[in-house]
Amino acid sequence: MNVMGIGAANWLKGSGTLLLSCRTNSITAIASRSRPAYCSSSLLHSNNNNNTIFSTNCHRIGHWNNHNTKLYFNFYCTAPSNVSVTEHDSSLEEDEETKLRKIKDAANTLDIRVGRILKAWRHEEADSLYVEEVDVGEAEPRIICSGLVKYVPLDHLQERNVIVLANLKPRNMRGVKSNGMLMAASDASHENVELLEPLEGSVPGERIWFGSADEKENLPEVATPNQVAKKKIWELVQPHLKTDGACVAALGMHSMRTSTGVVVSRSLKDARIS
To answer: Where is the TRNA-binding domain (predicted)?
Structure first.
């Protein structure tokens, strides 16, 4: 009886299924949402006289008959140096490239736009908050609250281009309904915070994306605020956002862009973005 698959000394740990076929005289091991691991335990073998399948510690675990048979196990399975094991579980951990592509696709469903702050003032009920009136290319400006009092002087917010995450659910912030978020970079200590900025010439309301310049024409539709909340899109994307060594905002290797070029922080390098 042969064990077919991915290489000597590879072990499959956990509960799964052994598919036994008399026609192919082979065992195929199927992992059940488990990682390959390296350890020492039972090796499968058979008694050719009565077709009984044993582990090396002589525990009988199944019977080989004239039909395809399923055995369910909860032990370690391995192969010696002259055989190998096949793993057939499509639910095993995806490779890193596939994960990053899915995160990028999700990021491009966020409605991130160029905004322009028309005016800003201190929140009357919260010392740490500003209230901004922001043009994001809609019929009326949006009201957005941001916790920037400690980091940005009020006069630096007036008539300034910013980056707005626009498809979050509105939030009531101490009596003011905030409809969006200003995106900013911060250092590891969170002592320095800078608003992200588009390059000069960007227009309020213009959509921002992650990727190359020519990807602009093939962007997916933006998600609704309910979809962003339900699918936790922002929570998925945000940990992968940071500025690079040139202060360019990026998602991994993919720069954050408008039609005029990349989005930047004025001075913060390798800083997280939120």
So the answer is: 106-209
